[in-house]
Design brief:
Elements lengths: L3 E11 L5 E12 L5 H17 L3 H13 L1 H4 L5 E3 L11 H9 L3 E6 L12 E4 L6 E2 L5 E2 L15 E5 L2 E3 L4 E2 L5 H5 L8 E5 L5 E2 L13 E4 L3 E4 L8
Helix pairs in contact: 2-4
Enzyme class: ligase
Keywords: ATP-binding, Ligase, Magnesium, Metal-binding, Nucleotide-binding
Protein name: 5-formyltetrahydrofolate cyclo-ligase
Length: 235
């Protein structure tokens, strides 16, 4: 039963000004109350994003090179891989995508748009061409047109998915926008759904909602491709 969730642990600390403030000490299990999964996810997102932003540049860049080094073991030549360009403190870099491209992989990148009411639409896809990316909303880097329909994701043998954390059953914690929740149900049932995370962002258990799509694998700098359980029962 997924009746507990992982959250940041804190203890009280008196700072130099004599003020009491919380200090994060790691991760704790706490029982869910009032099915408040969304609030729990928000707390986890804030904690993980804070940790990522505090990461030294040389550590981030070293991990990005390690992720790129796994590229040729991910996909065979002539396969289609749906990827994305990491931004900010996200693990990885354009080097991973370039490595896939040089390996003869057809790389599709997402195009994120919302409808007139601001609701995220399923992702559209464009082929990666080195040197032809554009900067879009939220600082995302996108492929140039033409863009194909959301159903194009079904052509992918592997889908690299941005994540803040993933648990060993495959539950993924994203940023909460919902683009991938709307897009991944269109994927082939045989596709590998791969959450790209740091090594310590694979955790024992995460809170899950009914719309969450389970990952089959995680990709980390040190461990490489890690098989996960199927939390949604997909075969």
């Amino acid at each position: 039963m997924r009746d507990r969730y992982l959250r940041p642990c804190h203890r009280s600390h008196i700072n130099l000004l004599g003020q009491v403030e919380p200090v994060e000490t790691g991760w704790c299990w706490e029982r869910l109350r009032n099915d408040d999964v969304s609030a729990t996810k928000a707390d986890l997102r804030a904690a993980i994003l804070s940790a990522r932003r505090a990461l030294a540049t040389q550590v981030h860049d070293g991990e990005a090179r390690a992720l790129a080094g796994h590229a040729t073991t991910l996909a065979a030549t002539d396969q289609t891989v749906c990827a994305y360009v990491p931004v900010g403190s996200e693990p990885g870099s354009l080097e991973l995508i370039d490595s896939l491209y040089r390996h003869g992989v057809r790389v599709l990148l997402p195009v994120a748009r919302v409808d007139a009411a601001g609701i995220p639409l399923p992702l559209r896809w464009g082929e990666y061409v080195p040197g032809a990316l554009t900067t879009a909303r939220f600082g995302l880097r996108e492929p140039g047109e033409p863009w194909s329909s959301p159903e194009t994701v079904a052509q992918a043998a592997i889908i690299l998915v941005p994540a803040l954390a993933v648990d060993r059953a495959g539950a993924r914690l994203g940023r909460g926008a919902g683009f991938y929740d709307r897009s991944l149900p269109l994927a082939s049932s045989s596709a590998l759904l791969v959450a790209v995370v740091r090594d310590d962002e694979i955790v024992d258990r995460l809170p899950v909602e009914s719309h969450d799509v389970a990952m089959t694998h995680a990709l980390t700098p040190r461990l490489g491709l890690v098989a996960l359980g199927r939390a949604d029962g997909r075969e």
